[in-house]
Amino acid sequence: CEFDFGRIFLPHLLPASDGDTKTMTFLQEVVDILLAYIVESFDRETKVIDFHYPNQLLQMNNWELQDEPATLDDILISCRATLKYAIKTAHPRYFNQLSTGLDMVGLAADWLTSTANTNMFTYEVAPVFVLLEYVTLKKMRDIIGWQDGRGDGIFSPGGAISNMYAMLLARFKMFPEVKEKGMSSVPRLAAFTSEHVICLTHFFHFSIKKGAAALGIGTESVICIKADESGKLIPADLERRILEAKQKGFVPFFVSATAGTTVYGAFDPLIAISDICRKYGVWMHVDGAWGGSLLMSRKHRWKLDGVERANSVTWNPHKMMSVPLQCSALLVREEGLMQNCNQMHACYLFQQDKHYDLSYDTGDKALQCGRHVDIFKLWLMWRAKGTIGFEAQIDKCLELSEYLYNKIKDREGYEMVFNGKPQHTNVCFWYLPPGIRYMEDTEERKKRLHKVAPVIKARMMEYGTTMVSYQPQGDKVNFFRMVISNPAATFEDIDFLIEEIERLGQDL
């Protein structure tokens, strides 16, 4: 049966008494739009982005909300327009973010959870999903190296929230009275994370400072530890700063080590950091949002040696494992701590006389009440790939990054930001156009080089051919930070990127 969607409105769809056929036809139209977009996203002949400036995009379409309902034909037009101007994050030549690619099984799982449209706070409203979260978190803890996968954990809205959960737990573990009495009941606290030693700029994930601000600890209580040239935290400086903080009257309570820094992809020396944390009774957290997935690889997991000593670990499968956004896990070694820290005994949700095992009502250990079902995407993909499938995917991305590094490290017109092979898929480099390639290393040369990456990036977006991130780092002028997490990328895509950078920057 065909319908003229120009005459049909939302009230004609289910639950209207005769809305089943109209609903199925409408949803099929939507699915056709989505499937066409998916196929297009993987086509290298299509643009990564059809870029328009904000004022242009506002003028090209009517995005304003109206009092009167639109027809379903208008709704379908809006769906097409939205995807037309969206970034194709599945495109094999999209390298802009840490989370790229589109997994078909993960996408199917996302559709299923949206259809189920339930909440993760109790077993009674999300029985299967709650069990899958339990099973998957246990498996992830086992991979970290905690005995029999014991401990606790939760899926949160992202790595920043997972890191804040860790800070919250660390504070509660040391000062449980803070839950009722607030920060006035505890001494001045100090948290520690890494800083780039040469540039004297913050090298850690910004979430540590955000967490300190949100929890009332204060951003000035986050103490930055020196890192070496490749971005790894220096343990000796950590111990020095802990002792210095204690002498000033602070109580060190939290150290955030990083497994895969955002810019350089560096892995902190976790064993040495753990020894220091144990010596001074400080909670050790590992922010493995970017690099935690390397635990799935027998070839690369050595980079996280010592992670099993941590009190908590952040691990984002929506990055290197290509699980659709969002999917971030906080894993905690001590069982029951999250519940004690966060529970408020809301009687309308967490009744104590239910007819099943109440340990599966996980909502009271979360800061949120409503919690999205993030687990099914990861669980279903794991079933489809197996651990060996994720391992092959991760190994491939690291192989591609090594290929890029080897191609440009000695290539004319390229200069690496730091010496040595990258530990993760981050490859940081400058492209030097012919016009400044042979200039002396003066301030004028730095000023000109600083403008190169932004101009090339703007041209990339205007042509729509590829996207790569760039940034300055302290006294280092703008450089490209290439990251690879899309399993659809190939060696030919890396070759294309190099050629495209040279094509777009030849005249600078």
TrEMBL record:
Query: Has UniProt tagged this entry with the keyword Iron?
Result: no
Bilayer topology? Peripheral membrane protein; Lipid-anchor
Q: What SUPFAM superfamilies does the annotation carry? A: PLP-dependent transferases (SSF53383)
CDD domains assigned to the protein according to its UniProt record, in alphabetical order: DOPA_deC_like
Query: Which molecular-function annotation in GO is an example for this chain?
Result: pyridoxal phosphate binding
Pfam families attached here?
Pyridoxal_deC
Q: In the UniProt record, does the keyword Secreted occur?
A: no
> Gene Ontology terms, cellular component aspect?
cytoplasmic vesicle; cytosol; Golgi membrane; presynaptic membrane
Instruction: State where the protein is found.
Output: Cytoplasm, Cytosol; Cytoplasmic vesicle; Golgi apparatus membrane; Presynaptic cell membrane
GO BP annotations listed: gamma-aminobutyrate shunt; gamma-aminobutyric acid biosynthetic process
InterPro entries documented for this protein: PyrdxlP-dep_de-COase, PyrdxlP-dep_Trfase, PyrdxlP-dep_Trfase_major, Pyridoxal-P_BS
Query: Which of the seven top EC classes does this enzyme belong to?
Result: lyase
Major subcellular location class = cytoplasm
Entry EC no(s)? 4.1.1.15
Keywords on record: Cell membrane, Cell projection, Cytoplasm, Cytoplasmic vesicle, Decarboxylase, Golgi apparatus, Lipoprotein, Lyase, Membrane, Neurotransmitter biosynthesis, Palmitate, Phosphoprotein, Pyridoxal phosphate, Synapse
Q: At which residues is N6-(pyridoxal phosphate)lysine found?
A: 319
What are the required cofactors? pyridoxal 5'-phosphate
| Quaternary structure note | Homodimer.
Function (record text): Catalyzes the production of GABA.
Task: Indicate the family of this protein.
Answer: Belongs to the group II decarboxylase family.
- Protein's UniProt name: Glutamate decarboxylase 2
Q: Which gene encodes it?
A: gad2
